[in-house]
């Protein structure tokens, strides 16, 4: 029976492929017939998603292999999905490991990552945005302990989809297995820092349970990230996967948050109703839960999606949406009346995330290039049965800054040129090869971002919330206020290597962070250390109270440190906080630093009608390629600035506000009409001036002497 | 009254004025490329690049025709300085430009069809036609061929070398052109040399 089911599933996939081709051909015809009717084209493009075949009926099993309807226990995806699919093979991929399998100092060094990072992935990489550092193994002192594995799961585990880090400790033992034991009182897999007591205390895995791979989050269209987040944040890992299904009608939450199963959602044979679980390829909406705003065709873009600020979108402001910007109802995009084009050209054409970010061994989409064998297309593909057993969950991806994650898969997705014949469609452009060699396609095809994005995250001075001060660009007002005017922003440009190592200029947002670095320890100062230095404690009211030294130095007459006062505008203020960090937090050698982090933009792509075509946009004195994007207004001066892991001169304080200055980054690019060699310009014009002056003086003397 | 001296044959005049026109056009289009936002007289930078390339080829063709003509008509010797053109004759000529011309002294070189250029002209044209012009043609061709011969282009240092080098040559061209135009007024009358290059004949001095 299972074999039959598998066969029908395989055949179905093949039929599905034919159906997709047919639909694509139909779409092309429809598009050519109705060019003026874009919405209709979008609808037809979207229609392909309905052509999917149902996944065979399955029994939801618990960890003992029993039907959950009988046991009432949490769903075990290891037992449910793992019957047909290779669970461990799938869970060994980046979506589940998040860098846990890449904790290798040599690997970090080879990618220019500072040694205080534990891995290049989200599990182990320091980022200025949360200013948190995963605690490594073998720590000798609680003073070096910031975030443990269980705390990481409560904070980040909603997106990072179970298994891997939520199933195995840093030694590779499965939690709750007999051999899984803490190696000591500071083992980061079995402890958590108690913020209020400022102590490292044990984590009770028996109480929290394990979060197995949450297949439903990506393969069930009605997945509930919000419900999953609640469970993960509460440390109730065991039920997280059940929570994901609360909107499907299969799972219900009763009083006290207890999960139960809706018997009506199951067939008589105990299998769950396919139409409710609706297992499928990941949809736009599935990916959108964690990766940013994606939609086929919507006129309303809420700032809070899936119980969070749009993860992904907030970093650079891209919107993957097929609807026209001019049709946007919310937010209030300034000037949208004139933006009679889609938020993203690819979304408008019906492309979904997995069209480009596909499983690399999917026979229908797999990579065909094999440069060693000089093959551009490899007709011999994987068997679909192999793929269904072991679908590679390391998805094809590009390589845009600041992403160091999933290093092994960098530059595996197809480039723009693999679908578009750039030479053919850029007839207007002189020196095509030079342009294509120097510029990423996004440089001209993402000329502007019409949404808001992070601008700065300042951990150098803690606000009275105990946290950082975050600012956004591209919006006048709060990001959750529907009345706020979304002005968008014009990106900055930085050079990044393409898959051949060729430096190309590409558009990016910039997030400036201010933070304290512990030079003695060679790592950023932890947030809890900052809080210890800045505050006397957390009172019952929930308000942090600044130390008197802070108030005296920073507050104005009302005795309150408001946002305008929370700045390091004198060396004395920096010295004061440095002293507090030494005195109260035990930071021996603190140093205030600035980090400018680029978040490159690859979506919000526009078509040829809106792309940059004017030569003078780049080839002029005011070239957009040197556009000085504004940074955090309150950036301190005369402190080290790092850009992509290296100290760099990329901040200019010459204007009214600190701005990004990419001149030192683009020195390898000579931009005709913009780049100048100073001495040649000076020499040239002085020489010409001298010839003119000589001629005038000579002629005048001849005239005066009557010799002309 | 003496009759006008035949100085420039038709071929020479055509060559000269074509050269002048193409150089002037190259300077204008060059400015449109170097200062595209401030000198957009050609509609767009792409137009300026296109015109610059075509006219550059016209200049090269004219230069080769000029070489062909001067060699086959055995007139190349006009451009070849003799040893005293670098010493005595040059000093005499410079003294005339810097002093004698204000005193109404006679031009040190009596122009005739066998000796059309003074020593300063010979030295200047030697530098201009044999060094600066080929330098501009070489750097210009390499930039024009950036898409066609990218390896060769990169071997010469790419845009960071060729762009500024070509710009430097262009400034020298502009300076030469301005000086050249002014010095055309230093004939027997302010317009006599210009007229000679148009009609082919130089009017004899009235003195």
Short structural description:
By secondary structure, chain A is α+β, with helices and mostly antiparallel strands. Chain A is built from 26 helices and 23 strands.
Question: What can you tell me about this protein's structure?
Answer:
The complex is a heterodimer of chains A (708) and B (207). Chain A has 708 residues and is α+β, with helices and mostly antiparallel strands. In chain A, 29% of the residues lie in helices and 12% in strands. In chain A, the strands form eight sheets. In chain A, strands 10, 11, 14, 15, 16, 19, 20 and 21 form an eight-stranded mixed beta sheet that branches. A three-stranded mixed beta sheet of chain A has the order 9-13-12, with no helix packed on it. Chain A has a two-stranded antiparallel sheet with strand order 1-2. In chain A, α1 runs antiparallel to α2 (38-46) and α8 (149-156) packs antiparallel against α11. Chain B is mainly alpha-helical. Chain B contains seven helices and two strands, in the order βαααααααβ. Chain B has helices at 10-34, 45-72, 88-103, 119-144, 150-155, 159-183, 192-199, and strands at 5-6, 201-202. In chain B, strands 1-2 form a two-stranded antiparallel ribbon. In chain B, α1 crosses α6. The termini of chain B are close together. The mean pLDDT of chain B is 91. Chain A binds chain B through residues 428-434, 614-616, 619-622, 668, 670, 672-673, 675, 677, 680-681, 683-685, 687-688, 690-692, 694-695, 698-699, 701-702, 705, 707-708, and chain B through 33-38, 40, 44-46, 49-50, 97, 101-104, 146-147, 150, 158-160, 163-164, 167-168, 170-172, 174-175, 178-179, 182, 185, 190.
Give me the count of strands of chain A.
Answer: 23
Alpha plus pi helix count of chain A: 26
User: Oligomeric state of the chains?
Assistant: heterodimer
The helix count of chain B comes to 7
Q: Which two chains have the most extensive interface, and how many residues on each? A: A-B, 39 and 37 residues
Q: Can you tell me the CATH superfamily of chain B?
A: Transmembrane di-heme cytochromes, Chain C
Question: How is the main sheet of chain A built?
Answer: 8 strands, mixed
Return the domain count of chain B.
1
Class from helix and strand fractions of chain A = alpha+beta
- Ends distance of chain B: 11 Å
| Radius of gyration of chain B (Å) | 19 Å
Shape of chain B: elongated
Give average pLDDT of chain B, whole number. 91
CATH class group of chain B = Mainly Alpha
* Quantity of strands of chain B, as a count: 2
> Poorly predicted ranges of chain A (pLDDT <50, ≥5 residues)?
1-42, 45-49
Percent helix of chain B: 55-70%
The fraction of residues assigned to DSSP E strands of chain A is: 5-15%
Stated plainly, the CATH topology of chain B is called Fumarate Reductase Cytochrome B subunit
> Using only CA atoms, what is the Rg of chain A?
29 Å
